[in-house]
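*** Backbone structure tokens ***
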Amino acid sequence: MKRVFVDTNIFIRYLTNDPRDLADKVERFFDLAQRIYECLTAILGIPGLEVSDIGVMEEALELYKKTSADLSDAYVAVLSKKVEADAVATFNEKHFKDLDVKIYALE
């Protein structure tokens, strides 16, 4: 999944609705991002669907929403805390910079 930083001019186009064609593009972009998030949270609420630990997934979704982490890294971080791991072994240390976990350095 791509992570996109949104420049201020995107918000300005959206808020001012000027020019209209750019404002429309921004609105479609924001709508898509919101639908993806809503879809993931809705999947968790499907009756009969068993998620091994719904709390871990919900917390990971919140971290994903609030930090620069990918959803998969947020999930690993939350799960590692739940199982009381001392650290996470990864080659992608930068992916965990916002996730309050210790990284185990492979030597």
Notes: The radius of gyration is 18 Å. The longest strand covers residues 88-89. Residues 51-107 form one domain. The CA atoms of residues 87 and 96 lie 11 Å apart.
